[in-house]
Amino acid sequence: MNHENFAEEWINAWNSHDLDKILFHYADDIEVTTPMITLAAGGKENTLKGKNDVWEYWKKALEKFPDLNFELIKSTAGVNSVALYYKSIMDKYAVEVMFFDDEGKINKMYAHYD
User: Fold this and answer.
1) pTM, entire model
2) In this structure, what are the phi and psi dihedrals at residue 105, rounded to the nearest 5 degrees?
3) Strands 47-49 vs 71-78: parallel, antiparallel or unpaired
4) Strand bridging mode 93-100 / 106-113
5) Are 58 and 37 in contact (CB under 8 A)?
6) How many Å apart are CA 104 and CA 67, to the nearest integer?
């Protein structure tokens, strides 16, 4: 996998606000861990499991932030993984580390924010 091409596709999918394009990159058993879940939902959970739960969360997030736009700063490659460093919502900087299954879909993702 070319991490630079993937990063461009991923950023473009998010900036399109099209959930089908966004979720194309993710496996059905995706596990997403991010402090934004607690921030957005007001609960204590930081992890979502399964494409349906992630879809619901991201649908609400896109409605809450209709002007969402990510700006890629850098991408890096690892073993069956990539890390993207980008400017996120609310002028926050983010690093997302994404791990891929055998089919090339993201099955685990961790987000970090400044």
Assistant:
1) 0.90
2) -105, 150
3) unpaired
4) antiparallel
5) no
6) 29
